Amino acid sequence: MTAPASARRRRIRRLAVVGAVLVPLAFSGLFIAALAGGEDALDRIPAAIVNNDELVQQTLPDGTERPVLAGRQLVTELTDPGTTGFDWQLTNDEDAEKALAAGEVYAVLTVPEDFSASITSLQSENPKQAEISLRADDAHAYLTGAVAQAVGDGMVRAFGTEITKQYISGVYASVGQLGTALTQAADGAAGLQTGAVSAQQGAVGLGDGLRQYTDGVDRLSGGLDRLRSGTSNLPQLSNGVAQYTSGVSQLSAALSQAVAAQQADPLNPQWPATIAGISQQLATAAASGAQLSTQTTSALNGLRSGVAQSADGARELAAGGAPLVSGAESLAGGLGELGSGAQRLADGLRTGAAQVPASDSDTAEASADVASDPVTLEVTRAHEVSDAGQIVATLAVPLALWLGAFATALVLGRPSPRLLTSTVGTGRLLGTALGRAAAAALVQAALLVVLMHTMAGVGWEKLPATLGFTALTALSFTAFHVLLTLAFGRTGLVISLLLLALQLTATSGLYPVEVLAPPFPALNPLLPLPHAVDGLQAILAGGAASPVVAACVALVGLGLLSVLLGAVALRRVRRVQAQRLIPAFGG
Prior knowledge:
Blueprint: H1 3-34, E1 46-51, E2 56-59, E3 65-68, H2 70-79, E4 87-91, H3 93-102, E5 107-111, H4 115-120, E6 130-137, H5 144-230, H6 234-264, H7 270-355, H8 361-372, E7 375-382, H9 388-412, H10 417-420, H11 426-455, H12 463-488, H13 491-506, H14 520-523, H15 528-541, H16 546-586
Parallel strand pairs: 1-4, 1-5, 6-7
Antiparallel strand pairs: 2-3, 5-6
Helix pairs in contact: 1-13, 5-7, 6-7, 9-11, 9-12, 9-13, 9-15, 11-12, 11-16, 12-13, 12-15, 12-16, 15-16
């Protein structure tokens, strides 16, 4: 062996020792570095917002209308740079679903059409909680659902607290308006009291007038009765007077005729007797006239007494009429004040009642429930995986395949110096090395697949996909380790461990890769282990086929590149080995 070759081998061994010493540090140090700056890790996780909310008009207590767009307010708060939790991007339903399926976003927040209507319903008789939905996909990161739940709960609490504050402010404003209305009602009640006093006074005056009026009516009635009694014989008296005056007139005429006849014939003896008879009749009539005069006087006295009593009753009626009118006016005024006060009381109570948001216990309880929790969050997980065994298998199986390839390379090592210096072709030597390692890799893959389906709860209907993908991953990792062994010998295994530490740090699956500090998210698509994890996760979760296809392309590319570079490395090793033998033969 030449001195330069010997020195180069010593340097490689020293580097291998240093690498072996750094392996534990690499595993811990890389993880610490990747998770540095965790306080803003959530802010780097991309998420989509779909705002389907529609504008509503809210009627204020003063009757004016105010437009409400609660969804826009929520979007504005979430997309504000100062808001913690997810990197929110505003989009539509279709683009959001595509981005979620492709893993471009890890959650989709949807604001429904009736969001504003539900928010404003808190002031109505039928309060309703506003609902928003948050959707994650386990096919890209298992912990995204839990993270989305935590972020969503915090978001809902913050926004709901603001809504509750506004509601409480409205309640206090309503209490103030209620106080004003009750003050108005109190003024109305005072008016009622004043009107009641006036009505009472008017009623007293009205009662006095009515009593005087009643007394006058009684006396007038008595006078009228006496007047009626006194005048009941007036028709007969009138007939008697007429007959009396007629009889007297006839007697007087007869007497005049008899006297004239006697004067004409004084010697006639019948005239004295006739004149005496007429005189006797006049005497009788005179006696009747006195009786008639007495009756007439009595009737006239009764008539005068009844008229006098009626006049007294009429005067009492007139005297009672003034208090009656005054009492009636006072009563009317009091009743007017009562009506005005009652209207003010009714207006005040009606206004106060309008300020009270709930009219019964059920409505009050519903309003309290909604006010305490005005916004609810519904979190759904597409392709949900809740079995811990499947979650562990997503990362454990690719890791086990990498370690299996590492162990196979450690056991098989490079071809022996005898084979390297033999006449066997390089292609054949490479094929032999790859064949033995591939056989071990396929056995490892089969065992892991059986373990997944029997112990991790993976359905047997996924066996073709899990077996094919696991076998491809095992072959790709094995080819890469054969390359490392051919190119660097046992030092390549140290490189494998260092690469494993780097890959584990940059691998997603459990959590979004965006939570890692730079430059690890950028390294994720360049490393084989993250591709294997992404593909197996999509298979186990039943997600879109695109991650599986992308992983297969990356693994096939790694395997083919490893074979090509392995052939180059094997030729170089054989050439170096041949150069070592030349001095021995020459010596």
